[in-house]
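User: For my dataset I need records formatted as: sequence, then structure tokens, nothing else. Please produce one.
Assistant:
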Amino acid sequence: MRKGLFLLLLCSLFGASTASAQKFGYVDTEFIFSKMPEYQKALTEIDKFADKWSKEILDKNAEIEKLQRAYQAEEILLTDDMKRERQRVISDKEREARDYNNKIFGHEGLLFQKKKELIKVPMERVNRALEKVAIQKKLDFLFDKASDFVMLYTNPKHDYTDYVMEEMGLDTDSKPKNNAAAPNPAVPATQSTAKPK
């Protein structure tokens, strides 16, 4: 029993010392992208495509509504065959509009493909800078403060956003300030294993 506890304690101490030796940092990619003219241009282009395609879908829906109103106004005067034909035409137009909407805005539709194409170059540029900074600063982990990964507290001394922006030649001014007291950001630190009390 004592040997088992000793081994467990030894393993936990070894694991803690390994974890504390790993260096980590974080960046705010949302802020970086906001300072990239090529990314902002890509967003503008994406908005143009989305607006154009949305207008086309609205036009299709307006045409369907016009056909429905005309059918309702003339329904009393139509024979059964004529009613079926009008209903078929309206149904075909509705299906066509639905299919077009899915083709454009559906999962991996044309808008998704266009976003991927237009944002590819800025994303690659940021990724190259992130990798270079991580290697230069000898970081084992680099987190994104703007991602879905929840960061409840961030110590500014682990913020490498400025380094990435400098690597990319972007203006580092007007960066959002962290509420925590900011120690010297030029001195990266190792991961803390302190537990809350």
